[in-house]
Write a structure and sequence with these properties.
By secondary structure, the chain is an all-beta fold. It has strands at about 35-40, 45-50, 55, 60, 70. It has one domain (about 15-75). The structure holds zinc ion.
Length: about 80
C-alpha cells in the first residue's frame, strides 16, 4: 500500500492567500480592507483580497468564514 500520510480531514481553505511582505491584515483585522486585491471583478461588483475577504462595491465584506460585514462607507455622491 502507498503511504497514507496525507492529512485528509484537515483540508480547509486557507484563511489567507497573502504572499506579501509584511503580511497584509488578516480577515479578522479591522484593517482587512487594506489587503491587496488579487482578483477584481468590477462588472460583478466585487473584489477578492489576498486575506480571503470578498469586498463588494457597496463596501460590504464577506469574510472567509462566511461572516458578512454590512456596508460601512457612504457611497460616492452621484454628480
Ligand atoms: Zn497580501
Amino acid at each position: 500500500m502507498a503511504t497514507t500520510t496525507t492529512a485528509i480531514g484537515t483540508t480547509r481553505l486557507p484563511d489567507s492567500l497573502c504572499t506579501h511582505t509584511p503580511n497584509c491584515p488578516t480577515a479578522s483585522s479591522a484593517d482587512r480592507e487594506a489587503a491587496h486585491t488579487i482578483a477584481a471583478h468590477p462588472e460583478q461588483g466585487w473584489s477578492l483580497l489576498c486575506n480571503g475577504v470578498l469586498l463588494f462595491d457597496d463596501t460590504g465584506d464577506l469574510l472567509p468564514d462566511g461572516q458578512v460585514i454590512a456596508p460601512h462607507r457612504p457611497l460616492a455622491a452621484t454628480a
